[in-house]
Write a structure and sequence with these properties.
The protein has about 300 residues and is of the alpha/beta class. It has 2 domains: about 5-115, 2-Layer Sandwich (Nucleotidyltransferase, domain 5); about 125-290, ATPase, nucleotide binding domain (Nucleotidyltransferase, domain 5). About 35% of the residues lie in helices and about 20% in strands. It is built from 9 helices and 15 strands. Strands 1, 2, 3, 4, 5 and 8 form a 6-stranded mixed beta sheet that branches. A hairpin with a 3-residue loop joins strand 9 (about 135-140) and strand 10. The longest helix has 25 residues, at about 215-240.
Length: about 300
């Protein structure tokens, strides 16, 4: 039985697990989650990661898969976190070398982007299973994305944004994350509701609840932000021709509101993206993640095996 140790490193937590590749899911008793302070010093961040890893129960000489956000040099294992407000202490740090002395005698460490890990997990055992082409989007603090062809991330070519990252796309003359992100949604609602200061601005889940209750400012905010996301993604989908778009992340909990707005934006964007784009986008399935919690763990395990 092949059990692959993995780590998923986020801005607020680190999760470790053994993934049983015979069934493609994490071993229940192996999953450990620890809080993470992304603004801490390098030693504290690395020690927190290592502490979670030690509780996974990985054997010596294992191939580890490690999913984490960018900017990061995934080949060399060196952090490039400059000016983004998280993991700044790891900028220029050889994270791979530091973890090799902290983890239980790893044979190899295979790093990959957390959005790619999520996408590969959903392709293996979730909402993108069996699809030769898929676009997977994560909606959280920012926008994560992965364009998959036969289960592998595509990071270059005419059908994908730079490095396959949707946050590099612009919409309405602005970078996408200035229009669709946790901060952008809150800011848009604050303007619509004439709220002053960040302290009194509700978070995205609360804005969604207000929209369900009939608040016109909240409804306009949700529809405006996620319609824009659809318009931004439609031209890329028209070229990449995915069979499905899978959406995950914390904001996906409000899919009853986000889904219709995203769908409307995709339709509008396809109408202006050139001949045939509307047919491609209309045929694309749009669904939420089936494995929102463990897809990144599964994807990291699959990546480690492929790299090995």
């Amino acid at each position: 039985m092949t059990r692959v140790p993995v780590l998923e490193i986020g801005g607020t937590h680190v999760t470790g697990a053994l993934v049983d590749m015979a069934v493609g899911t994490p071993v229940a008793h192996s999953v450990v989650r620890r809080p993470m302070a992304a603004d801490a010093g390098a030693r504290r961040i690395l020690d927190t990661i290592a502490e979670a890893a030690r509780h996974v129960g990985a054997p010596d000489g294992a191939e580890w898969g490690i999913a984490l956000p960018g900017p990061f040099d995934y080949v060399s294992g060196i952090g490039r976190f400059r000016g983004i407000g998280k993991f700044e202490a790891l900028h220029g740090v050889d994270v791979g070398a530091e973890l090799r002395v902290r983890l239980p005698r790893p044979r190899a460490l295979s790093f990959l982007n957390d959005a790619d890990a999520f996408a590969m997990g959903e392709h293996h055992a979730g909402a993108a299973a069996g699809q030769d082409r898929a676009v997977c989007i994560t909606l959280g603090t920012g926008i994560g994305s992965s364009f998959l062809h036969h289960g592998r991330p595509v990071t270059e070519g005419p059908g994908v944004p730079t490095e396959g990252r949707a946050h590099r796309v612009t919409v309405d003359g602005l970078p996408l994350e200035e229009v669709v992100s946790r901060q952008a949604v809150r800011a848009r609602y604050a303007r619509a509701a004439s709220l002053d200061g960040r302290a009194g601005v509700p978070d995205v889940g609360a804005i969604a609840a207000l929209a369900r209750g009939g608040d016109p400012c909240a409804s306009a905010t949700i529809s405006g932000c996620f319609d824009a996301l659809g318009r931004a993604l439609a031209p890329w989908c028209a070229v990449f021709r995915p069979k499905v778009m899978v959406v995950g992340g914390s904001m996906a909990a409000s899919w009853d509101l986000i889904g219709p707005a995203l769908s409307a934006g995709l339709t509008t964007g396809a109408d202006s993206a050139g001949p045939g784009a509307d047919i491609v986008v209309a045929a694309m399935g749009l669904r939420t993640a089936q494995r929102p919690d463990d897809a990144p763990l599964i994807g990291a395990a699959r990546w480690a095996l492929r790299q090995a």
